[in-house]
User: Fold these one by one.
Assistant:
Number 1:
Amino acid sequence: MSEAWHRHLDYYLTGMQAHRGVPTWFESEWPQIERAWNAGQRRGDAATNLGYLNAALPSMAPLGLWTTAIAWITLGLPWVRQAGNKLSEGVLLENLGYSHFLRGDRERALAIYEKALALAEAHPRQVYTGSLLGRVGELDAAIGQPQRAGLLAEGHHHRSSG
């Protein structure tokens, strides 16, 4: 990566970390944040791009950038899989499912949540399920099956502790 682009990425990565939870800053800087992301895709390495993605995701939610979040997460999943980082893979799958849910694609969200739960079952000490089960519960309530989330959580608890 050229020195200028690396500085550009670093500047906005640092800015997103410093202004986490401040959607007005993120919104005002969004064109440059997106430009830096695109440059990173062309010139950067997976670790740098993944750090950038993780810094950007929390600020995308308040602005409703679900389509962008889906695209960025889809690019990031192969990086965490290649690195063998099950925790990051689980977090990205949860965020991907939630982004689809908020866009109204409940079936796709459910399919992704099921992948995340399978990952958690396969790697119980490496993938957290608390917020994931909460997201599944939110989806189940939205589709009129709130009891399914409780059964799913109970089944997951028995499988991972037994």
Note: Residues 1-63 form one domain.
Number 2:
Amino acid sequence: MLCVSACGEQEAEVVRLAPVSTVDQLSDGTYLASVTCLTAAGGQFYASDYSNHRFLILEADGLEVSRTFGRSGAGPGEVYGAGCVAVAGDRVLAYDSRGRRFHVFSRQGEYETEFAAPEAVTAFGFAADARGVLLSTRKEEGAASFYDLGGQLLFTFAETNGGYDAPTESRRRRMNDRLPLLASDGSIILAYGYQPIVESFDEEGRHRATLDLSEHELFKKRVETITTEYRDNYDRTRAGMFFRAGGIEGDRAYLLFYGENGRPESILEIDRGSLTIERLIRLKTRAGTDAYISAFAVDSGNILAFDAVEGSLNLYELEAGE
């Protein structure tokens, strides 16, 4: 048992999950080289199939494609780059990362309308609900912004902390990139991509709690290592990443935590109210090695995750850990 909490000391369980099913070729015969975003709602998973320039609707087992939408092109409902996807009430928002537009579909993948992104959508994507779309901006003031489904601003909140001591303005803004998550009750989670910080807010953007991993003995050494820049395999300078993907189910938030040299390490299961870390979930491949997760979603006690190395979708049961 590990001691990690936001408020006081509590024990957090470490669990290792093996996939209950996995597939590297979909039912329509295509292979997945790059899935950049996964989300879930109502017993279905939605995926951005970037390598095939489209979005997918997957059934509850995560392995059967029931429909594709947003095919490649420049017409209504067509995209150049399949960016992030999110469920907004009875609609699905799909972002075209090259056209910089939001395409609005029904939950069955039927095209309805589209609108220009009101501001830049970062690599950490966006969140949505029936009210509209939540973006974490790179603007000078560094606030998160909530827009309706027509692109009109509803409110802003959560000014950033300045981005550490970044040497340049562009790096400072990048240090403020955040992963936005929305719960069914409208409450909000923001996790910094390049800082070890998670914040929670109510449905109107009022601050509730903050989790700083650098304050915990378990993470302190890793935080120091990750914060230090490193050279990747192509000899490029990289800033260490902390959180890359996430999801919410019930009163739990799930965040993909990155370890040294930009490798996904574990999924943190966090209580949304107190921001206490309840469990560290480590996903395995069929061969028993650590899975290299680039995207995942949680639904009905299951995790559907994409392994970027194996090019496979893996389904895990949350309560089946070792």
Note: The helical segments are 169-175, 217-227.
